[in-house]
């Protein structure tokens, strides 16, 4: 199994922060609290707060499931394309 390298991990961390910013902006535009979004998307408030911080676990970049991202986009009334930032890092094995 190929190992992830430090450069890829750093790029993913930056990308996760961009996702967090996008998520927070969409929530604010929708006029919802973090608790409202979490409840409607079937998440705990703690988990949702972590995603808005760009984390999945403390010190680990966010990596929500596709199902979670889709639920968030539906709750926030935005498209996946608007929620998920473009210019994703290259995650193929190197």
TrEMBL record:
Residues 23-83 form the HTH cro/C1-type domain. CDD domains: HTH_XRE. Gene3D superfamilies: lambda repressor-like DNA-binding domains (1.10.260.40). This is HTH cro/C1-type domain-containing protein. It comes from Microbacterium murale.
């Amino acid at each position: 199994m190929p190992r992830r390298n430090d450069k890829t991990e750093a790029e993913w961390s930056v990308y996760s922060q961009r996702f967090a910013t996008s998520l927070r902006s969409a929530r604010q535009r929708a006029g919802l609290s973090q608790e409202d979004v979490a409840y409607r998307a079937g998440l705990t408030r703690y988990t949702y707060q972590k995603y808005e911080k760009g984390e999945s676990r403390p010190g680990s970049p966010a990596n929500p499931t596709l199902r979670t991202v889709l639920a968030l986009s539906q709750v926030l009334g935005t498209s996946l394309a608007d929620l998920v930032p473009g210019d994703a890092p290259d995650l193929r094995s190197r």
